[in-house]
């Protein structure tokens, strides 16, 4: 079966896409830039922020490209004067009620509102009026919520419902008072939130920030190192944020297994890396006190004790539980060791519990 | 050479006599913030952000102009020091535009760095604010006196070359401002646009006009190059964004020689992916022309192609 295709022209570039493709997706395929706030390829189409408006002759007004389906013969102008003017006004309206504190904002340098304001040269706030003055919510150890910076794009709402399946936050109140809240407008800490931080990963501005990371470093000061989460067998990918040779936080990247989704342990459980209590050498109890030992000494001791148990009580008196924090190769070696050296089939894995 | 021993934050350090506390701290790997200090033109002591606590001294001295003495004890981040620095930052921010949003120096600004470090989110002081017009009267440098913190680095850098000395402090008190002679725009002064002032400006008061709106610091990579137009060997940086070379800015002058405009413009032609096209005045208006036309080589070229 062949997929029906449509051919359209975007900024003079002809592009052929499968029927049902949006103008935004077609533009990205053609390498034409269109700014977005509320759009996310992993989430349902929303069409709220209007930043992605384009000009399509014959249409009544400037449609949002993220929710407009491409049709055959369609002509699209993604950066015409009318489009630029509309985007500028949208930015001015957003900035009319946004704190001007990039100076110390943790998202400075990784903020779409800032990127687009710079791109379209929106320097001032021509609209004056009431501004939100919500208190900062930082009573939990993981996420700082600043609803004064929220642009109500609703990505966090959809990420919570569609990626994490928790639906903790949603839109509440109306008009100027519209706000993202958990049920009954309680803080996240009093809600059913599991602090996976997947809302933080999709927030395009500074409304949701990782508490530790954003206080420790600005976005351009960190080196990002992609790695695999060591906590369980799922194998999520993420980026360690490294500043001055120290891990200061974790951010999502586009992982093969997990996309940008992570759990609370993966995203926020990096404190052990540089923790002063972390064990860095083996310890052996001598005269009732743990003392540091060499690896040779420690492995020698374990080997001698295991051999002793096997000799005195037989192989079936031994059992092994291996860990999801080990690699496949290490787990393979452990079961090989259990069966071939210890001589028992009693081996299990914590991921089965 | 005679030496003195002192203690900075509990670390014992030995330095040659005459060394400033700031230099000694940096030798010991201890961070002290500075705005007006420049290793090439040191000892100005204007901004006070480098103050430290030295028991026995009357107040918090500026470490950039305080010489180390034998047995001296220095605390660089004591509560009193941190409080002083916060107040200095609040005073600076009381009269500084809050427009990091679109500032071309966002991400490469010491005022921002230190405000973040010391958690100074807003100024506790309200009062009159400067409202100077933007000076973009020349093709190279944009001067925004509203963002100037009067550290004087541009003045000292410019005055280090005798025949330059184009700018200096003008007026008094709140009206103090960095000015050219007679407070004319830079475009009407003797400025040759070597750009050393822009290179040393710690904030967004001096920025590159050809780069305005073209990219923030974290979007660009920098490659150091040596100028090839004379034998002085000044160094420049080629800035690139998304794989395109978009600008050339001065870095360090060669010995005994300031960075010249010829070097920078020449390097732009050499390195930029889209260097400015030549222009010729035709009927009183500048119009873009080909290099062949600008250099009067059309006749020779046509013969060569024949």
TrEMBL record, chain B:
Q: Which organism is it from?
A: Desulfoscipio gibsoniae DSM 7213
Q: Gene3D superfamilies, per this entry?
A: 3.10.20.740, 3.30.200.210, 3.30.70.20
Question: What PANTHER family does the entry give?
Answer: NADH-QUINONE OXIDOREDUCTASE SUBUNIT G, RESPIRATORY NITRATE REDUCTASE
Q: What is this protein called?
A: NADH:ubiquinone oxidoreductase chain G-like protein
GO MF entries: 2 iron, 2 sulfur cluster binding; 4 iron, 4 sulfur cluster binding; metal ion binding; oxidoreductase activity
Q: Which SUPFAM superfamilies match?
A: 2Fe-2S ferredoxin-like, 4Fe-4S ferredoxins, Formate dehydrogenase/DMSO reductase, domains 1-3
Q: Which UniProt keywords apply?
A: 2Fe-2S, 4Fe-4S, Iron, Iron-sulfur, Metal-binding, Oxidoreductase, Repeat, Ubiquinone
Indicate the segments forming the 4Fe-4S ferredoxin-type domain, all copies.
Answer: 139-168, 182-211
Kindly list the GO CC terms recorded for this protein: membrane
Q: What is the lineage of its organism?
A: Bacteria, Bacillati, Bacillota, Clostridia, Eubacteriales
Membrane-crossing residue ranges in chain numbering: none
Q: Which residues form the 2Fe-2S ferredoxin-type domain?
A: 2-80
Span of domain 4Fe-4S His(Cys)3-ligated-type: 80-119
